[in-house]
Amino acid sequence: MTNKIKKILIANRGEIACRVIKTAKRLGIETVAVYSDADKNGLHVSMADEAIHIGPPQANQSYLVMDKIIKAIEDSGADAVHPGYGFLSENPEFAKLLAKKNITFIGPNPHAIQAMGDKITSKKLAKEAGVSCVPGHMGLIEDAEEAVKISQKVGYPVMIKASAGGGGKGMRIAYNDEEAREGFQSSKNEAASSFGDDRIFIEKFVEEPRHIEIQVLGDKHGNVIYLGERECSIQRRNQKVIEEAPSPFLDEKTRAAMGAESVALAKAVDYDSAGTVEFIVDKHKNFYFLEMNTRLQVEHPVTELITGVDLVEQMIRSAQGEELNMTQDDVKLNGWAIESRIYAEDPFRNFLPSIGRLTRYRPPIEGTKENGAIIRNDTGVFEGGEISMYYDPMIAKLCTWGEDRGVALNAMQHALDLFELEGIGHNIPFLQAVYDHDRFERGDISTAFIADEYPDGFEGGNVNPGHARKIGAICALMHDITEHRAANISGSLPNHQRHIPDEWAVQVGDLHYTADIKGEKGLRTIVVGDGEKAAIEMEVLTAWKPGLPLVIALVDNKPFNFKAEPIAEGYRVRHRGVEFKVAVRTPRAAELSAVMPVKEEADTSNLLLCPMPGVIVSILVEEGQEVQDGQALAVVEAMKMENTLRAEKKTKVTKINAAPGDNLAVDEVIMEFEVE
Question: Which has fewest Cβ within 10 Å: 187, 223, 533, 601?
Answer without folding.
Answer: 601
